[in-house]
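ok trying this again, last paste got cut off
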Amino acid sequence: MRNRSPWIHQLDKDRAHQRLSGDITTDVVIVGAGIAGIATAFFALKYTTQTVSLVEAYKLAHGASGHNAGQVATYFEKGFANMVKDFGLHEAASAQAAINNAWELINEMYRDAGLDIFFNQELGHDGYSTYEQVVGALEEARLKRQGGLDPEHMGIAVNAPFLDDIPPQYVGLYRAIPHATVLEMLETKNPVFLAVSSLKKGSINSALFCEKIVGYLLGAYPERFALYEHTPVHKIILSPDGAVLDADRHVVLAKHVVLCTNGFENFHIINENGLELDTKFHYSVRGRVAYMSAYLEPADNPPIATSYETPEEPSDYIPYYYLTRRPYEFEEGMVHNLISIGGPEEPFADNTYSQEVEYPERAIEVLNRFVHEIYAPEKEGRVDYEFTWHGLMGYTQNGMRMIGPEPQNPVLLYNLGCNGVGILPSVFGGRQITRHLAGEKVPPSAFDVPKRLTLPPL
């Protein structure tokens, strides 16, 4: 089966693609035209007077932004408890609050661009099946409450065998509810799920979002914004007051460079100001390939965004499952519900990844089992998937998005690192980068770029 994304399917097939055709000078050059690059361009154009050029090696939003699960969530896959351990409660809470507030940043982009494409923002649910999962989620909620955040509240089934064993420090963070209510909220009949927590979630076609925002930017800022696709960057040379980019067959001169890539591009960074700089920035990010599939149903049910932690020990291949249901125009004038599911993922060998690799049968078998055992047990036989796709996720060493200037040369800035849940952090990163570009004094945060990156042996 081939890599076929439902998000790419909805893009304008007739949109013209402009590549760099000569040398240019710009205030800001952004490398990477996914949601991070688009958000960075949007806020830089809105909140500064600088000129912005966006260069993309392939096509707009055809990387991770066109090959994700489409689920929008505020949690960190790193886990809030681990954030507290690494950064302290205050800094962890500040980081969480920043991502919570990123919903409004997306809404700001929608309002300014006058978008009407689907963006669901509703109460979503996470399902749990073991004592360890429940206590882990409650500890995260306790720490959030201690840090001044609104924690997710949990419902635990009255017949859960561990209900009476919940430690007293979690009183007020959960309530006992009928088991049937747990299953109803999770839209499953599988009795293994014994608890559910609720939080704001949503779904979006981030590739279509990028395409629409670019159209708006080209119309709103014709003198200050340009997009160049099919323009790979081969080399970035940094000086104390600017940068030179070897882009395709031409040169880009810029005051600042913002890397909004997945971290696996084959280009070199050279720092000429005498300070040591990791030219192998790529190695600060570890790659994982996520596998997702989707099928169509009648548009009879409302949108949902749900995650499921099953009783099986989480593995490197299946940490958990996630599902969204949303209206989807498959053919013009024909709206269905798209059931998008994912879970399987694995590292990719030798830092080599290709979107052209066949979709593995192993992933289909895993997702089939999920459909039959959890979401739609009435389905018989092999599920008829309309889409099967995989995408590359970049995980930073500390599990936090890298946002801000390179410590050895602030001409270079980063907005990168999906870390499993990337849409809201990407948009927040775009706004944060703009504060740096505007010369604001940005306080330290958990998103700051490490002063030194520990590289793996070559």
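PB: full thing came through this time. The chain is about 25% helix and 30% strand.
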